[in-house]
Amino acid sequence: MSSYLLSQCLVTVAIVLDLCSFQCRQRHWVLRCLCLSTLLTAIHFALLGHWTGALLMALACVRFAVSLVTTRPFWCWVFLLLTLPLTLLSWAGLPSLLSATGSALQTLSAFQRDDKRLRLGMIAGISFWLAHNIVIGSPMAIAMESLFITSNLIGLWRFHRPASFSVFRRKSPTLAPPSE
């Protein structure tokens, strides 16, 4: 099996984990799925020779593991600061800039205690990773990030839609007496 084909197979498994992640309500299940997904995606990028993406996804794996046990701002700063030398060490122009920006946004998200803030921040970060994957030309990684955004939006809607909104029943308007 070629490195390219293996990389696409690994990212396919990562897609399944990403889709599962944001359909979980509990933050710890979201982060566990993301930890495994980012590990597979790091290997995917390494097999393709895209080292900034590989290093930042490996860092993301560790970041998600740490954010499972703590949301202390100290750790958020540690991971934000580690993003810079890893990006500079593996600099490859626009793909490096896009992946570093996505990684920084997802780092800020991972250390949010509230799952809604986690989801919203991840959407922002995913957008930069999607652009990265378009630039490097990885079809399965493009599909992964597209599905990841979709799954995240569905989870956000499922768990955080306004209480007054329901697809299955319509509330009739209530008439209030005129005020004088």
How are the SSEs ordered, and which strands pair?
Layout: H1 3-21, H2 27-48, H3 51-69, H4 73-89, H5 94-110, H6 115-136, H7 139-160
Helix pairs in contact: 1-2, 1-7, 2-3, 3-4, 3-5, 4-5, 5-6, 6-7
Task: Walk me through the structure.
It is a single chain. The radius of gyration is 19 Å and the shape is globular. It has helices at residues 3-21, 27-48, 51-69, 73-89, 94-110, 115-136, 139-160. It has one domain (3-155). Helix 5 runs antiparallel to helix 6 and helix 6 packs antiparallel against helix 7 (139-160). The chain has 180 residues and is mainly α.
Short description:
With 180 residues, the protein is mainly alpha-helical.
Q: What overall geometry do the principal axes of the alpha carbons give?
A: globular
Mean pLDDT, to the nearest integer, reads 89
As a percent range, the share of strand residues is under 5%
Q: Total helix count?
A: 7
Share of helical residues: over 70%
**How many strands?**
0
Please mark out the parts with pLDDT under 50 across 5 or more consecutive residues, or reply none: none
Total domain modules: 1
Please trace the helix and strand order, writing H or E for each element.
Answer: HHHHHHH
Major β-sheet annotation: none
Based on secondary structure, the structural category is mainly alpha
The oligomerization state is: single chain
Rg calc: 19 Å
Distance between the termini: 79 Å
